[in-house]
């Protein structure tokens, strides 16, 4: 039988909400790099900057989601992805509020995802597309171009998975 007693609410000082500063940093870095790319690079493949034999800077627009999912859907996807981003940010902020500040991995993961989602949301609402500029490739195969926000979201997801394994191990040890 489980204990059904209500869990005492954390104060703001005790909760992970204090980690939202990291989401703000991710948002600022993401938007700063996108602004730099838009102001200093020409659009598209002919204007790419070859950095290494496996990496280019390449200014492109993405009207879809990850891997250009639904990019040719006609415009409605902009609002769908914006609504999803708002929902995810709200949900993760609520989870941060309920997570102890000492659970660094989960709170960092939430903050990275929130910051990345807000960075791409800003692009989507302001420009109507997301600016992507990181192009990794091997031979003639190019991974879909992405940005700092996408990287933060992926890193946050990996940290959440790792935190889940850590939490599972802690439960088994007790």
Automatic annotation (TrEMBL):
Lineage: Bacteria, Pseudomonadati, Pseudomonadota, Gammaproteobacteria, Vibrionales
Segments crossing the lipid bilayer: 19-37, 76-96, 108-129, 141-162
PANTHER family: LIPOPROTEIN SIGNAL PEPTIDASE
Record keywords, A-Z: Aspartyl protease, Cell membrane, Hydrolase, Lipoprotein, Membrane, Protease, Transmembrane, Transmembrane helix
Protein name: Lipoprotein signal peptidase
General function of this protein: This protein specifically catalyzes the removal of signal peptides from prolipoproteins.
Enzyme Commission number(s) of this protein: 3.4.23.36
HAMAP family recorded: LspA (MF_00161)
Gene Ontology cellular component annotations, sorted alphabetically: plasma membrane
Main location: membrane
Pathway named in the protein's UniProt entry: Protein modification; lipoprotein biosynthesis (signal peptide cleavage)
Compartments, as annotated in UniProt: Cell membrane
Membrane-protein topology: Multi-pass membrane protein
Catalysed reaction equations from the record: Release of signal peptides from bacterial membrane prolipoproteins. Hydrolyzes -Xaa-Yaa-Zaa-|-(S,diacylglyceryl)Cys-, in which Xaa is hydrophobic (preferably Leu), and Yaa (Ala or Ser) and Zaa (Gly or Ala) have small, neutral side chains
InterPro entries referenced in this protein's UniProt entry, alphabetically: Peptidase_A8
Family per record: Belongs to the peptidase A8 family.
Cited PROSITE patterns: SPASE_II (PS00855)
Domain of life: Bacteria
Species assigned in the record: Photobacterium iliopiscarium
């Amino acid at each position: 039988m489980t204990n059904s007693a209500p869990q005492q609410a954390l104060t703001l000082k005790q909760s992970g909400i204090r980690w939202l500063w990291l989401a703000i940093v991710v948002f600022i870095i993401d938007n700063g790099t996108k602004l730099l790319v838009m102001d200093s690079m020409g659009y598209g493949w002919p204007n790419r900057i070859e950095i290494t034999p496996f990496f280019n800077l390449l200014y492109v627009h993405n009207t879809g989601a990850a891997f250009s999912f639904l990019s040719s859907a006609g415009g409605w996807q902009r609002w769908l992805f914006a609504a999803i981003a708002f929902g995810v940010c709200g949900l993760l902020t609520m989870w941060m509020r309920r997570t102890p500040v000492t659970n660094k991995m989960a709170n960092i993961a939430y903050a990275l995802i929130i910051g990345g989602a807000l960075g791409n949301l800003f692009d989507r609402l302001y420009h109507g597309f997301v600016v992507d500029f990181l192009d990794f490739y091997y031979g003639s195969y190019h991974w879909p171009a992405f940005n700092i926000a996408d990287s933060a979201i992926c890193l946050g997801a990996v940290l959440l998975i790792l935190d889940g394994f850590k939490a599972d191990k802690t439960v088994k040890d007790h």
